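Example record

One chain of 135 residues, shown exactly as stored in the release files.
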Amino acid sequence: MLFSAIVKIIQTAVVVVVVVVVVVVVVVVVVVVVVVVVMVLVIVVVVLVIVVVVLVVVVVVIVVVVVVVVIVVVVVVVIVVVVVVVIVVVVAVVIVVVVVVVVVVVIVVVVVVVIVVVVVVVVIMVVVVLVVVML
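Predicted structure tokens for this chain:
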């Protein structure tokens, strides 16, 4: 009977040790799984944060490039408009100056021709009058 009780105690102790070992193994496995899951989640969050930061930087760079391109295009358009306006004004001034010079030259030529014609007519009249008077 004593032997049977000792065997029962040993059996109970073995069962308790096996249960404790199984519980410890299960707890360790659960802790390892939780730690691995948490690490994976942390890595995923870090990767997502890096991706978001990269996307924000890319968007900012694109916006800056677009703004710079728009500013350059506006500046080029303004420069082209100013150059065209200056060219048109210079051409208009040159045309006006040429027209004025041509008009002045024509007026001077007409006046000179009229004066020459008048002088020639007067000289002819004087000669005719002298010839008539002398005859």
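Notes: Residues 54-135 form one domain.
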